[in-house]
Design goal:
This protein is an alpha+beta fold. The chain contains nine helices and 15 strands. Among the domains are: 85 residues, HSP40/DNAj peptide-binding domain; 116 residues, HSP40/DNAj peptide-binding domain (Sandwich). Strand 10 and strand 11 form a beta hairpin. It is rod-shaped, with a radius of gyration of 40 Å.
Amino acid sequence: MADHYETLGVSREATSDEIKKAYRRLARELHPDVNPGADASEKFKSVTHAYDVLSNPEQRQQYDLGPQPGFGGQNFGGFGDIFETFFGGGGGGRSGPRSRRERGQDALIRVELELDEIIFGTQRDLEVDTAVLCETCHGSCAAPGTSPVTCDICRGTGHIQRAVRSLLGNVMTSSPCGTCRGYGTIIPNPCPTCQGQGRVRARRNIPVDIPAGVDTGLRLQMPSQGEVGPAGGPNGDLYLEIKVRHHDVFSRDGDDLLATLELQMTDAILGTTTTLSALDGEVTVEIRPGAQSAEVITIKDRGITKLRGSGRGDLKIGIQVTTPTKLSHKEQELMKQFARSRKPQQPVLTQFQQGLFQKLRDRFLNL
């Protein structure tokens, strides 16, 4: 590493005015507008950086001191660890500089699914707005053809050490270098695409396999599918929060599907066989003669595939017998004949019965 004093052509005892005059002279000679050569451009950057350091009294003092060993090189044995614990670094900065590479943040996306999609699972292509690796610098943070350089102030340690007077004498304390922010290096020419971050914002498509049996509120973890970290650090995780949309016909109870079948009075009396459209295709339902409201018909293995384990739940169909409200004259006569053909039965009071919805619910839960 070039010595800043040599770069400016001054002695180590030079005054602030002498340093300023030397910089102005060299800057006029090497400025790109006057001297467009590549070599002159690099020298101009070196001269400017040297002046930035030496013109700052605090940075110049630290530069003159250079990296200091803990406690002035004296061997205090086990006391060094004690001082490092209390004063933050009696060990001469042996913790090392920070890494620019950091893990990216996790991301959460809400995914809405139809009820029929969760029976067997589904696949989605999700468009995610996230941080991706910069294709210009590939995470180096520096412009193409350049690279980070060692910090002149901390000499690459990432820490600045200062002597602090205490009852035990001078104690060396350590704090992150303000020039390089603890990284140990600086980037003179940041990447123009990512502004020295090593990553940019972009939209990308992520194919997702959503397993069968998921339910509202469940979160699925996709490792390393979150945003890329600073300086090309490892990706965070992507979490998918599931929401299952309401269905007008079917509802869910665990792995079972529930529905209600409105049945004509005559079909309930005589019995019938009908074909219905379920979420996964047609299903044949046989109604026995004399079916009553709130009875439940169970169709095995036509529910939702279990999230953990094998097999499927059932399709449970509750019966609701509907009574016609308008009859023609002929229909009324037929109903009267039917009533006369049966043994008269006096209506009697019985225990209060819940509504059909409540009775169906109780039947479903008690099956």
